[in-house]
Amino acid sequence: MNILGREFVTEQMPEGWVICDRWIDGVLNIIDNKPSNRKNARVKLRNLGESLVKDCQKLGISPEQYWQSHNSNVLTQFVNQLQ
């Protein structure tokens, strides 16, 4: 799923499904520290997208500016709030 110009996917790990940020070179950065089942991971990803877009719009900045000031720790906080 493309969210503000960045690619996010659900990925199966031994503990369950998690949300990952896919970097340009294909590396996956896990941003979800609470594995769940596949359906719940997809719901969390969709909710994450909605939350990030709303946050970016609220701040009134471009997606590029948004990602300059929001790193993986912020993404993990957003995901944890969705659970």
Give the radius of gyration. 12 Å
What is the H/E string?
A: EEEEHHH
Q: What's the total count of β strands?
A: 4
The percentage helix is 40-55%
Helix tally? 3
Average pLDDT across residues? 91
Strand arrangement in the largest pleated sheet = 1-2-3-4
Shape: globular
Describe the structure.
The protein is an alpha+beta fold and 83 residues long. Helices cover 48% and strands 24% of the residues. A four-stranded antiparallel sheet has the order 1-2-3-4. The two termini are 19 Å apart.
Name the features.
four-stranded antiparallel beta sheet, 83 residues, alpha+beta, globular
Describe what is shown at a glance.
The protein has helices at 38-59, 63-69, 72-82, and strands at residues 2-3, 6-13, 16-22, 28-30. The protein is α+β, with helices and mostly antiparallel strands. Strands 1-2-3-4 form a four-stranded antiparallel beta sheet.
